[in-house]
Amino acid sequence: MSLLNIGGGDDPAYRYKMPAIVGKKEGIGNGKKTVVVNAQDVAKSLKRPFQYLVKYCGIELGAIATFDEVQGSGVVNGWHETPDLQAKTNKFIKEWVLCPRCKLPETSMEIGKKKEIIFDCKACGYHGNADSSSKLATFILNNPPDSKGGILKSTAGGKKTKEDRAREKAEKKGNKDKKGDDSDDGGDDDGKEGDWDKRKEVHAPEANDDDAEDEDWAVDVSDAAVEAREQKAQASFDKIEAATKELSVDPEKKEKKKKKKELDDDEKFGDEDEREEQMEAIKGEVKAAMAKSSDGDADDAIKALMQVAKDHELTPDDLFGFIFAVSFDENAVKQLQTHKKVLIKLMKASPNKEKTQKFILAQMETLVGETHKETLLKKTPAFLKAMYDLDLIDEEVIIKWYDKGSKKKLGKAVREAAEPCVTWLKEADEDDDDDDDE
């Protein structure tokens, strides 16, 4: 196998070499995945744990990444081309291997006393901190490197991983073959599981064409399944609303909340950390799907979202929550028109349209009254009317939402801004009544 220059270039005399990444597509349907066959060999030449490389590729590709320490390989959910994996590997090298000063791969990595990631370059003597805002930085801090190019299984006084806790529990019971039940032990040991932590395998019908049934988003179309999804919708409403609001929380407040949970209940924090990680992965997949819609390919966007729904067992409400979080900004009114085909298709798939419409209104409140308050609050009437024109929100639901009012400052502000649109709807309704009387 030919070797590549670490950091790029085609100088045959360059001393720093690495093997090219090798990706292998496996599985079909919901089980599609890409195995990074030689992740350990590549990472060894970079003097980094292979888990860091695989995790980075997963983050960049918006997919969940897992590791096989026995085989020294990694798995990234979904099918990905090898050139794309190589491109992400090159980016990883630039950000996490090369010295910022001399650009040579002679850096070592360690965790400082203040929980910062420190680079030391043996070539030029550079000593500095890595970018702590990177998503990979959080993973590195939770899985610090050891002196042999691997990852410390656990640190003294530090947070134990889920695997550590499961292994210790198995050892106490004297059952060395407990590995197959680790996931169950972890669930008992860590407390309650969120919807994002573990999902049952689903076998939903494949998307064939643009004329597929509206219920393609769902797992099953039987009467029993529809009733079950209606019961699940309320739980989805609460959880996704909380999840999407968390995305817009001030970073300092979010960090304080995170530290408090770590001090109060370290076991529970582990689950919260995993849930946030999976949410970020789903958010990346939804964002990639909606990018197709932005490019004018709504059909591909719909198929991609259907796949996300099947992979993670998401309901239409779940998808609406993530779409509002990642696909709308200060140009939200125009973006409604851009994504109208996707949004209409998704609404048709909802098993309980009134409940979904209420959920969308809640997402709108957060979007126009909090996330993009400065630019969108004054555009609330236009945004509301645009959703009404697309049949995403019925007139009766809008009026009921407005008349019910809100005790919260956010809800009051959004309803006050929405008054022109609501007044227009009520007056139009009165005119229709007068016409009927005549």
Helix proportion:
55-70%
Largest sheet data? 4 strands, antiparallel
User: What general outline do the C-alpha atoms trace?
Assistant: elongated
Physical arrangement of strands within the biggest beta sheet: 3-4-6-5
Structural class: alpha+beta
Here the CATH topology of the largest domain equals Serine Threonine Protein Phosphatase 5, Tetratricopeptide repeat
Q: What share of residues are in beta strands? A: 5-15%
What does this structure look like?
56% of the residues lie in helices and 8% in strands. With 438 residues, it is of the alpha+beta class. The chain has 2 domains: 3-142, Defensin A-like, CATH 3.30.30; 223-437, Serine Threonine Protein Phosphatase 5, Tetratricopeptide repeat (Alpha Horseshoe). It has a 4-stranded antiparallel β-sheet with strand order 3-4-6-5, with helices on one face. The chain has a 3-stranded antiparallel β-sheet with strand order 7-8-9. The protein is elongated, with a radius of gyration of 25 Å. The N and C termini lie far apart (85 Å).
Please give a handful of descriptors for the protein shown.
single chain, 438 residues, Defensin A-like, Serine Threonine Protein Phosphatase 5, Tetratricopeptide repeat, 2 domains, 3-stranded antiparallel beta sheet, 9 strands
